[in-house]
Amino acid sequence: MRKWICLLLACLLLPLPVRGADPELSVIAPAEPLIPWETALIRYTLPEAGTVQLTLTDGEGREIMPVARDVQGVAGKNTLFWNGTWERESAPAGVWRLRLDAGDAHAETEIVIAGEAPAVAARPAESLEPLRLSFTPATTSPWNGRDASLNYWTLPMDIHEEERIWQVLTAPITVINIGKNSTEKTQVTIRKEPSADSEGVGVVTCETQGVHVLERGEEWSLIECYSSSFHDSKILNWNVLVQGYIPTKYLKEEIPNQEMGMVIDKLTQRLYLFREGRLYSTLLVSTGLSNKRQPYNETRSGEFLLTSKVGDFKSDNLTCAKAIRFNDGDLLHEVPYVLAADGVSRIYDTCEPKLGTKASHGCIRVQRKKTPEGVNMYWIWDSLKKNSKTRLLIWEDWQGRQIEIPAEDTPLYWSAREGTYYHSAEQCSGVKEGLVLARFPYGELETGAYAKLKPCPYCAPVLRRAEIEEINAKYAFGGDHDPVLTEARKSCPRPLK
Ligand SMILES: [Zn+2]
After folding, report:
1. Mean pLDDT of 398-415
2. How far apart are the CA of 369 and the centre of ligand 1, in A?
């Protein structure tokens, strides 16, 4: 366990390069008091690349605790995560200084360490689990201000946070309204400086895409969002979190659907449907899969409103049924099918087995098989009005995020008689009527007859431990789960030629 934590801590200290260079040496502490064992972001700026040391000191320059040792920083802005501990010791509560040393130069700032969270302090040291990082959609934001409100941008990407997710799903959302009708497929350029002549850093889609207002000015406001760049957008910047200016008069608040909302997690490839305050049903999806030629296939993250019900449309030989628009060319629709030679039968074999993994050109493909709660894409279509303004939160699969490994006693279900699938629910729509499912714990899934079972395509059960570990290794901090997209982003942002 000790090794585990050391390894994780080492991972946490890898620097993340952030866009936009600033020549002065500086360090910024977390805005909130840092609670030991909870992860917080430290930002620092270097005039040139080099090795840095971060130290917690008292007012007189005496060392209280190392924060990070021999970290490689890039020229410009850097971020690193710290959990308020060193070699398993918590930093003492108090108002201290955070000192950054880079070569002969140093910078420092105030940092507040809070007492340990009661739940953490009460746990015996031996049972301390590996750290779980708390990521938000704005995790790599270089904005140095503070947003103390709860919204999409400050909400931790943790599906267990049902209450807070519901608050965010139903709160007002700020969208772009340019004062014209039918602008769902119109985009506005986000400018580097508050001026119409300033270069573009990204684009935002009108009416449906939510923006994080950082600084509201009279004429121009500083906002952030993921750039909704498609192949034909004016600024090409593939799903990059950008900050920049748009005219303040374009900002408009909308009240979303108060009965229903959805979270799409690009890491787990699942749609979490929330209804009347709680997580109601979990469905398998496929979001976009980028490639060298089409980096814009990656589904753009952010918060959106579901608006126009487009209906069925064809894409090559695939038919996508029940499509609802949420971001320009990105729609939520049923997993596509191919029409059989008889012109009537639908063949789902091409796309359906890929649900639960990235596969689309940017749209979100939703399962057609009914969950135990009876939900599928047809159900969603039927439940939503024409312009329902249902909020959709799309969580970015930030490098460093990890899928939680289920507890050993998590209940699963199967039938020895049917013997093909393991299920997440005792009553599954995919099970023949009259067939009774027996319960067994997740901890036994790799043993005996359970080892051969496949995950049921109806009830979206948890993945096997080895599968989760494989995904987690790909997403481990400091790695790169999508080098093709990383390469494509090197030439961004750039204007469309
Ligand atoms: Zn099932």
Report:
1. 94
2. 10
